[in-house]
Amino acid sequence: MEYNTLSAGKGGSMFNLIEKRRLYFMLSAMAIVPGLLAMMYSSLRFGTPVRLSVDFTGGSLLELEFEKPVQPSEIRRVFVEKGYGDTRVQTTAGERTVLIRSDFLTTEDKAELESELEDAFGEFEELRFDSVGPAIGGEVTRAATFAVLTASAFILGFILLAFRKVPKAFRYGACAIVAMIHDILVAMGFFSILGLLRGWEVDALFLTAILTVIGFSVQDTIVVFDRIRENIRRRRGEPFKTIINRSILETIHRSLATQLNAIFVMIAILLFGGATVKQFIATLLVGMLSGTYSSIFTAVPLLVVWQEKGS
């Protein structure tokens, strides 16, 4: 069975994507480096590459809406006077709604602090309260790290098994892992930048977004690699770069169609959805855009470079 191939130029010559691989690597660097710089600055300022929520660090998060505008510094002063010196307060929607992050609060501590706030600033409505003990926060952090490492190991093992009849199958698995790391760095860098600019903090939903990005990225990469495997067998004697280029052109429309459908849905949710899911959707959107790019323009060119340098 033959596949249609995009062509351009005189004599129907194949449009050569793989020759521009230096440009693709440069674009990847431009997407990753700002995020790495942001993560380095965040590590110096907060101790972690991205700002962590109470899901990971342990503590309490309280969101209150007052009847009158309030100053975050005055709210914080109430907590500091009660012994919660590490409390951070920021407004979220106008000057009447504040988000308070503090050390772990017991039910009694919370009730006492709310009474103090009501006496000082008037009546308010409690919009949200989350509280996680330090032990649970540490367990979530360990589980998140283990999940990403386990996914990487399974991906490498699957590709080694599926591509066992292809020469140097390990290279395919390694390139898929590099593309996956590329997408994780882009997503984390984006979140780190927004953490510095907008105060975004990583929660359990962020882990869900990262694992989803990993899945989409690897799936897209495997689709292209699988076509390369078929073409290597079908077109024996054809130069490797020609096979690679042919395989990209034969699969790029499928990759774009699949990813764009999901991307359009996420853009709609981002524009019209609730505020509670916007950080999750924004991270997912950036990660999927990166995954769509890296599957074709990072993993495959890297495979070509490795084949040329290591053959």
Task: List the topology elements.
Blueprint: H1 21-46, H2 54-57, E1 59-66, H3 72-81, E2 88-91, E3 97-102, H4 107-121, E4 124-132, H5 134-162, H6 169-198, H7 204-234, H8 240-272, H9 278-297, H10 299-310
Antiparallel strand pairs: 1-3, 1-4, 2-3
Name the shape in a single word.
elongated
Span from first to last CA?
30 Å
Strand fraction band? 5-15%
Task: Specify Rg, calculated over alpha carbons.
Answer: 25 Å
Q: And the CATH topology of the largest domain?
A: Multidrug efflux transporter AcrB transmembrane fold
Give, in spatial order, the strands making up the sheet with the most strands.
2-3-1-4
Indicate the CATH architecture of the largest domain.
Up-down Bundle
Name of the CATH class of the largest domain: Mainly Alpha
The tally of domains stands at: 2
Low-confidence stretches: 1-13
How many E-type strands? 4
N-to-C series of helices and strands: HHEHEEHEHHHHHH
**What helical percentage do the residues reach?**
55-70%
Oligomeric state as shown: single chain
At the fourth CATH level, what is the homologous superfamily of the largest domain? Multidrug efflux transporter AcrB transmembrane domain
What is the overall number of helices?
A: 10
How would a textbook summarize the main sheet? 4 strands, antiparallel
The chain-level mean pLDDT equals 83
Look at the helices and sheets and give the structural class: alpha+beta
Task: Report on the architecture of this protein.
The chain has helices spanning 21-46, 54-57, 72-81, 107-121, 134-162, 169-198, 204-234, 240-272, 278-297, 299-310; strands at 59-66, 88-91, 97-102, 124-132. Helices cover 68% and strands 9% of the residues. It has a 4-stranded antiparallel β-sheet with strand order 2-3-1-4. The two termini are 30 Å apart. It folds into 2 domains: 20-52 and 136-310, Multidrug efflux transporter AcrB transmembrane domain (Multidrug efflux transporter AcrB transmembrane fold, Up-down Bundle); 59-131, 2-Layer Sandwich (Alpha-Beta Plaits). The protein is an alpha+beta fold and 311 residues long.
